Amino acid sequence: MLFGHGDNAYQFQQKIVADFSTNVFYKGPSEGLLAHLSDQTKYIGRYPEVNAESLTLKIAESLGLSSRNILVVNGATEAFYLIALVFQQQYSEIFAPSFAEYEDACRLYGHSITFTNYDSLTTDYRCQASTVWLCNPNNPNGQLMPESQLRRLIANNPQTTFIIDEAYKDFSMGYHGIIEQVKAFDNLIVVRSMTKKNAIPGLRLGYIVANEDLIQSLLKLKQPWTVNTLAIAAGKYICDNPDVRFDLKALLKDSQVLQQALSAIQGIEVLPSSTPFFLIRLQKPADKTLNYLVENHGILVRNASNFRYLDNHYLRISSRNHQDNMLLVNALTEWMQIP
């Protein structure tokens, strides 16, 4: 597992007043969801459903798919390890920089791995690998391949199974995801998280969408009871009660204001992104920048130097509200002016 991740305030003694290191919706879970979960604690004296069957049905209904196309999992990470196990000892291509668990899962199950820079990805790309791992929108840089281009890429490479990580599908304007294409492509697996938008990463909840044969292959290898009672309850509540506080247009507007302010600071370059999170490249080292922000301002950012193709001059920033964003701008302005 990659330990240099975001949302790691527990590793610091200083109080964190503004956390820009995590891509999870910064407002936290809704009051309605918290109240519902509080009521559901009376059921934790019983075993959960073996494979989250009731939530599977609820998700399938919301997507207009058969429940046989859905597998609910203990967060997207469980999905990646299950998929890597099904395709064990095969040849995988990972477009990077991206989420490190693709690589970790593939290595655990004996894959041969090729890494390709995300910038080289086009619809004309010809894949040589058995499986391709692609995050869309991508973490950490927020880059997005539109649905039409993604469909062409998959259609042009029928010999390759595409694992599309849509954990941040809700964080990019106009991107509706490619789940409906599992009806057309047998070489497509889509993984989604239910925790990013709804701010419940501690519950670990996600799902896989694929053709029935692939779902059955995954189900045969999946351990029972990996999704707990409260996670199942949260997922069903989320399907019926979308969080109205999640306003992507407002999030992106605040992010654009933040990016413009950071771009005005000498020694900082902001890289383009389709999401509220984005990369910045600094003239100063990222690790020293992170430590300065934590120790002097109680601000936490994501050191992105442990992503492939990035070095110790990259930070990932996930926009918050305007007040918090200006704390970051002022702190980085101060830091960049220090000789």
What would you give as the CATH superfamily of the largest domain?
Answer: Type I PLP-dependent aspartate aminotransferase-like (Major domain)
Could you tell me the number of beta strands?
13
Q: pLDDT below 50 for ≥5 consecutive residues: which ranges?
A: none
Q: Could you give the order of strands across the largest sheet?
A: 2-8-7-6-5-3-4
Structural notes for this entry:
The chain has 339 residues and is an alpha/beta fold. It is 34% helix and 17% strand. The strands form 3 sheets. A 7-stranded mixed sheet has the order 2-8-7-6-5-3-4, with helices on both faces. A 4-stranded antiparallel sheet has the order 9-10-13-12, with helices on one face. Helix 1 (31-40) runs antiparallel to helix 7, helix 2 runs parallel beside helix 7 and helix 9 (286-297) crosses helix 10 (322-337). The model has no long low-confidence stretch (mean pLDDT 95).
Question: What is the secondary structure topology, with strand pairs?
Answer:
Elements: E1 18-19, H1 31-40, H2 53-63, E2 70-73, H3 75-86, E3 91-96, H4 101-108, E4 112-117, E5 131-135, H5 147-155, E6 161-165, E7 188-193, E8 206-209, H6 212-221, H7 229-240, H8 248-263, E9 268-270, E10 277-282, H9 286-297, E11 299-300, E12 302-303, E13 314-318, H10 322-337
Parallel strand pairs: 1-11, 3-4, 3-5, 5-6, 6-7
Antiparallel strand pairs: 2-8, 7-8, 9-10, 10-13, 12-13
Helix pairs in contact: 1-7, 2-7, 3-4, 8-10, 9-10
Brief digest:
With 339 residues, this protein is an alpha/beta fold. The chain has helices at residues 31-40, 53-63, 75-86, 101-108, 147-155, 212-221, 229-240, 248-263, 286-297, 322-337; strands at residues 18-19, 70-73, 91-96, 112-117, 131-135, 161-165, 188-193, 206-209, 268-270, 277-282, 299-300, 302-303, 314-318. The protein has two domains: 9-22 and 246-337, Alpha-Beta Complex (Aspartate Aminotransferase, domain 1); 31-240, Type I PLP-dependent aspartate aminotransferase-like (Major domain) (Aspartate Aminotransferase, domain 2, 3-Layer(aba) Sandwich).
